[in-house]
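Q: What would this complex look like in 3D?
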Amino acid sequence: MKLFEIAALLGCSGVEDSIEITGMNTLREASAGEISFLSDSKYEKELENTQASAVILPSSKAHLLPKGVIALPSDEPYMSVALLSKHFSKPIRSSEVPPVIGEGSVVYPSAHIENGASIGSNCTIMSGVYVGADAVIGDDVILYPNVCIYRDCRIGNRVMIHAGSVIGSDGFGYAHTKMGEHVKLYQNGNVVIEDDVEIGANTTVDCAVFGSTIIKQGSKIDNLVQIGHNCIIGEHSILVSQTGLAGSTTLGRNVVMGGQSATAGHLSIAPFTTMAARSGVTKSITNKGVYSGFPLMEHKMWLKMQAKLAKMLES
Amino acid sequence: MKLFEIAALLGCSGVEDSIEITGMNTLREASAGEISFLSDSKYEKELENTQASAVILPSSKAHLLPKGVIALPSDEPYMSVALLSKHFSKPIRSSEVPPVIGEGSVVYPSAHIENGASIGSNCTIMSGVYVGADAVIGDDVILYPNVCIYRDCRIGNRVMIHAGSVIGSDGFGYAHTKMGEHVKLYQNGNVVIEDDVEIGANTTVDCAVFGSTIIKQGSKIDNLVQIGHNCIIGEHSILVSQTGLAGSTTLGRNVVMGGQSATAGHLSIAPFTTMAARSGVTKSITNKGVYSGFPLMEHKMWLKMQAKLAKMLES
Amino acid sequence: MKLFEIAALLGCSGVEDSIEITGMNTLREASAGEISFLSDSKYEKELENTQASAVILPSSKAHLLPKGVIALPSDEPYMSVALLSKHFSKPIRSSEVPPVIGEGSVVYPSAHIENGASIGSNCTIMSGVYVGADAVIGDDVILYPNVCIYRDCRIGNRVMIHAGSVIGSDGFGYAHTKMGEHVKLYQNGNVVIEDDVEIGANTTVDCAVFGSTIIKQGSKIDNLVQIGHNCIIGEHSILVSQTGLAGSTTLGRNVVMGGQSATAGHLSIAPFTTMAARSGVTKSITNKGVYSGFPLMEHKMWLKMQAKLAKMLES
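A: Here is my prediction, written as structure tokens for the whole assembly.
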């Protein structure tokens, strides 16, 4: 899609450049040929180093762009991004190349492997499994019945995913009109699951808006867990059943989250942190420790609070 | 089924009428040829206007019925309804008419479309999807792998349902014997999903006992959400991941429910209400605003309470 | 596998016995030919009556074993059990015997029934269902689309399981190395679901480590519920949507758990106990009653606490 076509689509006048734009990305991740955006002023300082060819942003910020980066002025940059994201979304099927199945792998007849996908050696791909276009599955992987891997996702070696889990479904992102309608931000990223990860049954891991949602090596995730778009789960972390992570939260290595715990989005959790069952995390955690409650506090403070509440109850 | 047969089934003596009864419904929704019931005295005033042909109710309430409506006296009306509901439940398969697939639609080979169902044009019905008898799917719909649409459900245009979600599973309703056993109330209603709705992965939406569970136009529902029987979700509402709604709750338009929030059953939530993550709603909300906590309170009060609790902890 | 081979595998010197070991089990459940273990000293008193042929345990406890039971000393018994569990895990497919389908049962073409499984009479096994090796399904069972029954599970008569539910996925159990890595404890047990149980959509029930996870007769389980390994759900219990039970918890008969409630592991809940929605149960309940809150308290105390908190807010 040429830049002047994008400008016309978004209603930006005066942009005549015919450079070919191949995709969208964040200010930090974008490279030449990609378009980026500034919809939240807290990322303003990332403008100066962006490698994007063009940036959607409020006209008042256009002067902050490096020389050679083209401004696409917008009163509602996030809405412009949503409108444009549809044009860069990939179709469900896009490849003519038959899937590659490695030596020793068993694929049940009712599994559906799209063109462009590849499956390593010694895998077991059970009944009803779906593997999307251009997805890459490593060696010695077991996908239990009815697991769904969306397009472009990458699954490492010795990964085990239990029945019904969904990897790479769209993140939950919309721009909102003044009339209260929601315009879908198409999710063009993927999910990367590293080696030796185990995922339970009926868990969901959303793909990234741009880039990757990442579950790092050796992490273990229980049943009915929700992992939002662009989360990063550190190595050897443990997420117990019914835990939920909102988008763009990063866990360090060896983080433990108890059952039914949850984090808000855009947080950073220190390595080796433990959050007890039912914890509700609304702020980043910089010091490892054991935490509880909602709002979150040190576990020993939570115990103290329960003691005080019990005493209040007796009075 | 003839009325005297129903009376015999329920052990109501003295009912000889041979009128054909075609179904069951609520007092308010029932029409001629249907049977209704009074199991909770708070609906007593709906007796006088019911269009039902017959009503199951305590004998002490029979005099409140309009002229011409036949009483089926029962000491345990809800148990009688449960016993009768089985006889009006529809079989999984009931049609000889092959499904209709609209122009431009792609149906993967492992999808199963029952007889009597219809799918509009330009749809993508992916692997492992199930579409039940007499279900109606609109145009430009995407059903991702292993989505299950139970019989009689209706899906609007431009609806997108992510992998593994279940639309129209039975609501959770039972009558209880004195011995503590549970008798299933067969759920004979459906789910109606209007245009431009998006539903995430592994979410569940139960069908109505009678009538419809409704998700109105433009609403967006995240992963692992539970929507109980007979709920109505207003236009352009947003339900974040792991939210749960018990049966028969109605949300107005543009309601937002944060992650892991929940409502009890039979509530009414005002349009444009926002409930923060983890909210637990046990009473109806008549004034729009931002609410938090369990029990629910205005969000600013919740913040105040947290401040007071923190102070208590320091003392 | 011969005992001296196991000893070599685990690095226990001096064990030369060539007795054939056929499986692993708990101290209480093990019989001759099985190996057991002591990894938590609270089970120490079960050593004296164990019928196991050999026991993995700290060398300091070896003198507590009955005569004739062979000790396999280990500094990290739980890790030894995890390492050994892999060798006793059953393959996904292990039988050459074609599945048996009872009279009057309908099996949709896209369902996958493994060899060694049997399905009773008058069942409906819908599209995309998976029934694992040696699983036994009773009579008059309905498995809705994409239900997955793992190997060895046993489903009683008149059981109904709604779409997408997973029965018998691996419990969430790992031994942890000093480097913070997690070694899978292979889950070699099964799930037993007794007669007249109904299970909602997208619910998950994990198999037992050893022995059985059991859902007793007449229990009703809603959508998106998590039941951990080795739980026992008493007769006619009711678990409302999004409830979660950690491993090895036992509910008595007619227990009710409200929506989004949860229990920790290894608890015992008295018969006829009701836990309100959102209850969080961290200790066993010995007296039946109605309970609420997290931490759990009598419901009337919870109401009193809410009143006191409301009063505090006004001050």
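A: To summarize the key features: Chain A is about 10% helix and 25% strand. The interface with chain B takes residues 92, 110, 112, 128, 130, 146, 148, 150, 164, 166, 169-170, 172, 174, 180-182, 184, 202-204, 206, 224, 226, 228, 242, 244, 246, 260, 262, 264, 280, 294-295, 301, 304-305, 308, 312 of chain A (CB under 8 Å).
Q: Very helpful, thank you.
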